[in-house]
């Protein structure tokens, strides 16, 4: 499969490699998603820049946690009716080195959420970390109906979605 990865830390032009990597195997409880769009978050930039110095100890890293695509396979015990389903995904790199900057990602089925037909894959790829963080920030202490909520930093993605 085509993928982008890094084997050293630094600027994208100095570290990102685009080429072929083995297609991941789908494990029990996982789905295989053919990625249509991947999302880039600040944590992805920080990882590539070296904020997590032990990240490369086990080898290369295919970055990115969020994305959107179509389920092409399900692992053992999975729901085969999900094959062909449009989904947005989050935490693709949770506990692993291989994220969504690739044609395919195998991910825990619970981290693949149905993406309604009118919603584009580009929008779907933005629904992971930014939208979930905004939702938690706004609603962690309960309903805000009838309350005044101050959102600072509304120019960033999390702030943008919190304002919504």
TrEMBL record:
SUPFAM superfamilies: GroES-like. It comes from marine metagenome. This is Alcohol dehydrogenase-like N-terminal domain-containing protein. Residues 27-117 form the Alcohol dehydrogenase-like N-terminal domain. The keyword NADP applies. The lineage of its organism: unclassified sequences, metagenomes, ecological metagenomes. Keywords: NADP. InterPro entries: ADH-like_N, GroES-like_sf, Zinc-ADH_QOR/CCCR. PANTHER family: QUINONE OXIDOREDUCTASE (PTHR44154). It holds the Pfam family ADH_N. The keyword Coiled coil does not apply.
